[in-house]
Structure formats: structure tokens, C-alpha cells
What does this fold into?
Amino acid sequence: MKTTIVKAFGTKAADKPLIQMDIERRDTTAKDVEIEILYCGVCHSDLHTARNDWGGTKYPAVPGHEIVGKVTKVGSEVTKLKVGDLAGVGCIVDSCRECNSCEHDLEQYCQNGMTGTYNGKDKHLGGHTFGGYSEKVVVDEHYVLKVPSNLNLAAVAPLLCAGITTWSPLRHWKVGKGSKVAVVGLGGLGHMAIKLAKGLGAEVTLFSRTPDKKQDGLDLGANEVIISTDAEQMKSVRGKFDLIIDTVPYIHDINPYVSTLSINGTIVLVGYLGGLEPFLNTVPLILGRKSVAGSVIGGIAETQEMLDFCGEHNIVSEIEIINMQDINEAYERMLKSDVRYRFVIDMASLKK
Ligand code: NAP
Ligand code: ZN
Ligand code: ZN
It folds into this structure.
């Protein structure tokens, strides 16, 4: 298969910084769209993958799955987009398209394994996929999103992961006018969860460990902010929420949040992957018919629905634009929760 060499930023090992490197992109096949990447958001999953926090990272690793850009080439059978269109690519670049999940627009739960935008199995070139910290990407049109033209393009990029990851549970648990929703952690996912829940008409509460994020939480649309380390404040919202979206990336005690669920309420974990400690107390679950759930990103149709909703409601991410060369420092700041509220890489910096 014919390929082109493009510039990218990635890392060769878990304990090494990201550096500039060359990667290969396939030439467009009949169904492919080639996109010149203009902006790429920086998700905490990029950091987890670069540093092999979850195990299984293949190196060199080129992260990035919040991609927006311009279509530069399309294959002969492509109908969804044309050269010059704005386009987005999120966390999925392929799936089996045959299993029950794929047939129901739930590619993220493909029973034969979806192909991640990075660190996935590359069905075309062999090896593994490389993400959006690069000049170009080539993706089958089914997995390419249309981007509303009325929004700030750089601030749209984070919708492709942080947006859809919080939108999907809001939709699945049927959040709407009058719903009481809480969000744990004010980072990339958390701030999008507030904006999207608010956009759907919910009453929104933010749980944060960081007192100086309180005003930001309110400015983003939260009706109240609860400092999660303050026992009195936690007590004031016992039994309140229909849905809690917990975005915390590291192991933490979820029992205090379960207490704040209403009867039939659900806490959905989207951040931390792994065993919980201390143990989850089942008493409030049983006596309150409460649920603890998980959720991963969202399907392609649902991602398009979210982008269209954001276009209609003028919702974008709060961003700090960085150069590609600043990525290692950005990761360190992300580890200190010092991002307000998403870094977005200006990909023009890679070409310098
Ligand atoms: P982020 O921007 O770093 O935000 C995480 C927030 O969690 C922080 O701002 C902080 O908020 C809080 N936090 C951080 N460390 C904490 C700790 N040790 N204990 C308690 N709270 C802590 O990260 P993100 O990009 O939003 O991603 C969040 C997590 O979701 C990551 O693990 C990421 O891999 C995962 N993720 C999952 C999916 C999915 O499909 N399920 C998709 C994308 C990302 P406060 O300062 O307000 O407390
Ligand atoms: Zn992500
Ligand atoms: Zn499938």
C-alpha cells in the first residue's frame, strides 16, 4: 500500500518525553478522507497512554484523539465530505461494522474491538495507529464527523473526546429539563459535562477538590459548587442527584458520592479504570436502588448529534492554545490539575 511520511510528535518509551518524529499515513482508499490537522486537543488519556499507565501501550506512541482540520483529499466513493470541508475525528477510526453494537451505532462497544485513533490495531498498514499529534490523518468516512462552521474551530477539538464522553451518559440516562446532575472533577471532561448538562436543561452541581475553581464552575453554568473535601458541604447534598458523572482519573473513594444520589440515582464512572478502594458499600445501593455504572466515549452518530447540538447552542470548550513543542510541559501541568480547561495544540507549530 502506498504511504506518505508525515511529521508527528510522539514518545518511544513510557519514561521518555514526546519528541518530533516521522510516521506513515496510507494513501486514501475509495472510502477514505485525508484531513490536514489544524488543531488537536490534549486529553488525559493521551498522557495515560504515553506513560503506559494502563499497560499495553505500543511504542512509538503518537497520541491525540480530539482532531479537527480540513479535508484535503477524498476517495472515489466518499459521499459524506468533500475537499475543503471542515472535519473532525474523535477516538474511533474503525470497528467491525457487523456486530450487534456496530449495527446499533455503538461502535465504541464493538464486540470485535473498535480501532482506537491511537494505539489501535492498524488494519491497513499493520502495526498500530497513530493519533492527531501529526500533520495529517487518513480515516474511513464513516468515522469522520462534520464540524459546525459557526464555532471557534480550536475550541471544537475537545468536543471530539471530552464532549462526547460526557454527552453519551447524559443522553443514555435521559437527562433533560429538571434533571439533577452532578459532575466530579473540573478538568477537560468535567467542564464539558457542566456545559452539556446545562444545555440539556439540567440543574448542575460541581464537586471539586480545588476551592479556587469555584467561580469558574459557576461561570461555566453550574448552579452550585461543592468542595468535596468539606464534610459539611457534602452533607448538604445527600440524596439529591439523579446522575453523577465522575471524571476523576485516579483511584478515589466513591462512597461519599453514592450518598448524594437520589433513589434510583446512578453514578457513572468515566475517568478511573481499575479496582476501587476503599470497598464500595452496597448498603446505600440496595436500600436506595442506586447504580454504579461506567461509560466509554460514544458512537459516531451520537458524536455527530453532540456536535450539531453544540453548533445550535454555541457550546465549545474553554481552551489554552499551545505549540506542539510545549506538550511535555502541558502534561506536567495536567497532572497538577492546572488546565483551564483543555490544552489544544495549534498544529501549524509542527510545521515550523
Ligand atoms: P483532566 O483534565 O486532568 O481533569 C481531571 C480532573 O479530575 C481534575 O481537573 C481534578 O479536578 C480532578 N482530579 C484529578 N486528580 C484527582 C485525584 N487524584 N483525586 C480527585 N480528583 C482528581 O482529565 P480529563 O481529560 O478530563 O480526563 C479525565 C479522565 O477521564 C482521565 O482518566 C481520562 O483518561 C478519562 N477519559 C475517559 C474517557 C471515556 O471514554 N470513559 C474518555 C476520555 C477521557 P478538581 O481540581 O476539580 O478536583
Ligand atoms: Zn480522550
Ligand atoms: Zn463491531
Summary: The chain has two domains: 3-160+318-351, 162-294. The chain is about 25% helix and 25% strand. Residues 25 and 217 are 40 Å apart (CA to CA). The chain has a mean pLDDT of 97.
